[in-house]
Amino acid sequence: MSNKWLTPRLEDYSARYNELVEKADLAQPSEVRWCMVIKPYGFAIRENIKKYLDQMFKNTGHSNAYFPLFIPKSYLSKEADHVEWFAKECAVVTHHRLMNNPDGPGVVVDPSAKLEEELIVRPTSETVIWRTYKDWIQSHRDLPLLINQRANVVRREMRTRVFLRTAEFLRQEGHTAHATEKEAIEEAKLMHEVYDDLMRNFLAIYGVKWVKSESERFAGAEETYTIEAMMQDGKALQSCTSHYLGTNFWDAFDVKFRDEKNEEKSVYATSRWMSTRIMWALIMSHSDDKWLILPPAVAPIHIVIVPIYKKWEDDSKLDNFVMSKIIAPLINGKWTKVPISKLELSTNEYTTDELYQFWESENYNKWKMIIKNEEWVALWYASELKLKYDTSDKSPWRKFSERELKWVPLRIAVWFRDMENWIVEIARRDESEKHLVKIEELKSYVTDNLKDIQISLLKKSMDRIDKNSTEVNTRDEFIFAIDENKFVMAHRDGTTETEELIQQETKATIRCIPLDNKLEDWVCIKTGKPSKQRVLFAKAY
Amino acid sequence: MSNKWLTPRLEDYSARYNELVEKADLAQPSEVRWCMVIKPYGFAIRENIKKYLDQMFKNTGHSNAYFPLFIPKSYLSKEADHVEWFAKECAVVTHHRLMNNPDGPGVVVDPSAKLEEELIVRPTSETVIWRTYKDWIQSHRDLPLLINQRANVVRREMRTRVFLRTAEFLRQEGHTAHATEKEAIEEAKLMHEVYDDLMRNFLAIYGVKWVKSESERFAGAEETYTIEAMMQDGKALQSCTSHYLGTNFWDAFDVKFRDEKNEEKSVYATSRWMSTRIMWALIMSHSDDKWLILPPAVAPIHIVIVPIYKKWEDDSKLDNFVMSKIIAPLINGKWTKVPISKLELSTNEYTTDELYQFWESENYNKWKMIIKNEEWVALWYASELKLKYDTSDKSPWRKFSERELKWVPLRIAVWFRDMENWIVEIARRDESEKHLVKIEELKSYVTDNLKDIQISLLKKSMDRIDKNSTEVNTRDEFIFAIDENKFVMAHRDGTTETEELIQQETKATIRCIPLDNKLEDWVCIKTGKPSKQRVLFAKAY
Description:
Largest sheet of chain A: 7 strands, mixed
Number of strands of chain A: 27
Radius of gyration of chain A: 27 Å
Oligomer: homodimer
Structural class of chain A: alpha+beta
Largest interface: A-B, 90 and 90 residues
Number of helices of chain A: 16
Helix content of chain A: 25-40%
Strand order of the largest sheet of chain A: 3-8-9-15-12-11-10
């Protein structure tokens, strides 16, 4: 079944992406230059990702904190690599006041309100965070310091694209301080594992998990751990990075600590981040020619239940069947609903009996008014199964197609004839046939199928890399494989110059260098100079 | 028991606040002008507040979304009141690039990189959100639109104070659109109830919940619903506001919709926000002369368990007792712990048996290394009871005093002698005596006492307003009562001029106007002109 709305993905991958993001209501470019608006459905996906990642950080001993949006210009000059990367294109605050335009309507910048020192809207927070750490770190007892921040950052981008490249984007950034190099490197590696866990087990994206070459490392990093995912056109996407930063940068900010022997020592640092860019990877990794596809772990809604009302039949009979025989068992009798009075605000769990009383009471209509589309929302807290019972007056066909575009993994249609037989009709979003399922088997059917969808998406992502990766030994083989948009393991002589030559010729860059692959004697595919180790080349976003 | 570190609260309320915020590790001013750093302990409190409020918004049908940080200058000029309030003191981005200083070291603003139109760092988001709503709202089917955003906003403040007044602060802001005036007013009132619910039931702050006078309304609002809390010095703090905004503002942005009859209609709007300022209210409302006091509902840790190790006794025996007889029953056997390998990252719940195996394994030391202070952290998911088992090598006395300053509501000390008798020693932070509690009664003791602390704080807050509020009938009575820092119900003639005169004379402002108090014939305490209704006057922060 093809979808006449959407451009086939291999025809124009970019056009299709824009259509998906728009039609599934995920996000949109803003009229404000370089910025995006993240719409409620897209934001709900992001919130799910954030929730998992935040818990993982807390489980590994990190705390959240918040640091200033603005960086004084002088901070950026403190570390040479840093200023080179970040100070060039950025948002510069120069004034603190507007005034009425003396020459006409509107407001203009008040020239008398010039700041003594310009403030840069943070492109990244190392400088302002480490200026603060200087106050916090005095002794070995203050270490390790394990902090995570959720922040908006701004880097000017000329060609913006929603989620992938916008000037303002949202991200978490972790910044840790350690007493020893060993501990700092272990932290950077552990966070590499945390990201990989999130990507595999929640986002269902399998990535190659190695280190960056020197030229592709983060400014100031001594080692950058990366995860490179393969998009459906074969290009790589750097999905997240974890950095071991050594001591140089923090020496510039004069951060030192006194060890057990009261000797002054340098502090070892790491940093890492994952941004709204991961939304781009999520959308592009799974969606097919038909529509958006989301792993159940991050989908805002898991099941939409659509009653098929007939004019000559009693709606409330069907509603009661859905509530008592379908929803209640799925959510273990725990409901969340919109309150109608302040008394109900704090206690948002109800038994099914209470809910029936409510359903039948005069308050029902009041309550209906508040929620758009009059949809029931129920959360199953334990496993976080999210249901939507769509009782709006749209046609069933329209309810199906809306949900299909937004990729709700399972759809249950409830007919009068099935109600009498205690069965329901379920369709998986990734299959075309419908299934009739007995009420008593519903819960295990739902759980099994959501799990199955999650796993099958991860498997597809693994298969893609598996089928589209190759080892080559010569320049000709290399060019041919890169032309076919493959992940290519090849030898190179290890110089930045050669890396640049290869990129000019083929557009491929070194995506990452294996951490533990076997060494072998061979020659660089470009220069013929000796090489000991293959690295991963690919074209990249 | 007095605390020699802290200034008595009635001696210098402000100095004491700064000390509390610093000593309890909540936040600090930043070297970056006008900005603050929210430290991990302070941020954990904020996260708890955010979690409750976010759930309440979701329960009332709202979705989260995200809009741009920058507002083009021309947006701010669209609505007259708006520009008057916000455009005057703000952070203005004029350039998009820095360059190496041609005349010396460092970087300077690149004069060739001037923006065509200046961007303002959002002081509030109405303009940029409603520019977007214009695209989203076409028909009555698109309404109501119920959106909440979490954002950092910037308003220049000359005299900054952490949490109370800083240029950059964090807040949620809700912006809704409705088809009818009636529905919009109901929404503004419902959100007023939501805030009140949060304040009473979670923050344990009782506030006066009425509407603002015309001169104190939000720019552009037709009605502003406010909650005015009373601080311990008797001054009022406007804790949160919910606004009914009518149609004028959105008409300026040309947002219209077509109703059921396909006629073009204006959209009715509301907005509301609660910011990091609520942290100030929380700290100042409860803390006594000794230290910080937090309601258990928002405290980052509920119970600290301190083992009293003796050199000649076996630590692991005590540890095992604490784990199996104290912690395990309290948390229903559900643990969160720091993982030592990636395999453990996704499954962070363990049975007590698994935890013992882990405790006894060689991995224990590896794991200990990761968490600062080697503290066990266990979460009881169901009731969210947060425990800390402090096994660090600090002295018990130091562990007690650190926790006291941060106000952990309950403290359990575990002695060898008590272990043998299956009892533990518990102290409530708001009482001086210790209690011996039998292990089998521990769980109910903990639950009851946390609930009791929460309720007693709310009661204190209610009593404060009760005892320090008064009705007056004459100018002399008014001046006397305001001098005593009371909440004063008095008649006034309803003009903005009289309001200003009263403020000049007494520093008191109208905090709010009752929604449904009885009307009576009397005269203005200032001008003697007729008045029908008493309003609430007070000095305010």
